Fold this protein.
Amino acid sequence: MPFDNPAGDRARRQARFGKSAQRHAAQGTPAPSQPKVNGSAQQKHAQWLARASDAERSGDSVEAETCRQYAEHWFRVAHDRNDV
């Protein structure tokens, strides 16, 4: 009989009420205290400027402006930390 599967019934109930096994498994792991950033602020500034120039060369002025704004953010972070 297709209805003799209690594990399947449990999975359907959990899905219906917004519970999942993945969420329960992740509760025991501690969250990182700081987000991981690859590279220094000065390196991130240079990377975003390079992306901005690539976007400008490809003709995407909106993407270029977005990248310049990110570059400015990382410049300010580097300046606040006295990395520059």
User: Anything to note?
Assistant: The CA atoms of residues 19 and 80 lie 43 Å apart. The mean pLDDT is 79.
